[in-house]
Structure formats: structure tokens, C-alpha cells
Amino acid sequence: MADGEIGIRPRKKQERSGRTRQKLIEATIEAMTEVGYAGLTVTEISNRAGVSNGARVHHFATKLDLVIAAQEYAYGLSIEKSRQAAQQADHGENVIRAMFECLLDLYFEPFFLSFAELTLIARLDMELAGRIHPVLIHYHDSIEKNWTGALRDWGCSAENAQAIYEIAL
Predict the structure, then answer these.
(1) pLDDT grade, residue 50 (50/70/90)?
(2) What are phi and psi of 100, to 5 degrees?
(3) What is the band of 7 on the pLDDT scale with cuts at 50, 70, 90?
(4) Over 17-83, what HEC string results?
(5) Cα–Cα dist 34/52, whole Å
(6) Rounded CA gap, 147 and 141, in Å?
(7) Are residues 92 and 159 in contact, defined by beta-carbon separation less than 8 angstroms?
(8) pLDDT at 164 > cutoff 70
(9) Distance between CA atoms of 27 and 30, rounded to whole angstroms?
């Protein structure tokens, strides 16, 4: 093997590993949306992702690990969608209308409703609660920051921006 080839193989392995991980996360979101947390199995996720159970275990040891990774990924996409909508609203759009439209979109996406189920289950499952709580806090804080910032940029005081955001929710 030539010296230049040494760095190529690990990178390809990392890319393949990243694709496998992504497939598992997307399969988890899809399955959660269709069958909910109670109906979710790691076998179903592996099958949907088209990966072996061993590959699944390599990336995610448990169902809860999969669900948390899927929740972080999906919420990350929503945070970015909110950030972009808030930035665009800063450039002449009606910020309040844009905020309402964005929040309606975010909070009624099919995956969001399935992850909301986790919050209800977590009231009796302390391990689940401990894992999802930081993800939820980050999600809600980020969305709030995006929109209260856009409202302040539009000319609202911090207090009024917070009140408008809370009313929108």
C-alpha cells in the first residue's frame, strides 16, 4: 500500500459509518412516527435502515440511544429551520406572522407529535426523562432565542418579544 492510500481507507470507513448511523436515525424517526415509542423495536429499525443488528449495536446499544439520537437530529433540523425563518423575517416580512407560521409548522410535524409522546411516557420513566430533558430544553430554548431575537431586531423590547413569543406558543 502506498503512503497516500493510508489516509483514504479510514476516511471511507468513517463515511460508511456515518451513512449507517444516518440511516438508523432516519429509520428511527420514520418508525416512531408510524408506530410510536411503545411499538418501536430495534429489529424494526434495523430492518428499515437495511443494516444488520450488529451494525445497529455498534452505533446504538439500545432503543433509547436510537430514540435520543433521532430526537436530537430531528430537533436540530427544526432549530435550523426556525433560525432561517427568523432571519428571513428580519428582512421586511411581518415577523409575528412568520413566527406563527413557523411554529405551527414545527410543532405539528409528524415526527414532533411522536416525540411529544416521549414526554408523556417520561413522567413514569426516570431514565427516559433524564435523557430527553436536556434535548427538550435545548430545542425549546433555541426556538425561543431565534424568535425573540427576530422580534427584538424588529423593534420590540426584550420583555415584549418574550410576551409575544409566549402568546404564540
Answers:
(1) very high
(2) -60, -45
(3) low
(4) HHHHHHHHHHHHHHHHHHHHHHHCCHHHHHHHHCCCHHHHHHHCCCHHHHHHHHHHHHHHHHHHHHH
(5) 21
(6) 10
(7) no
(8) yes
(9) 5
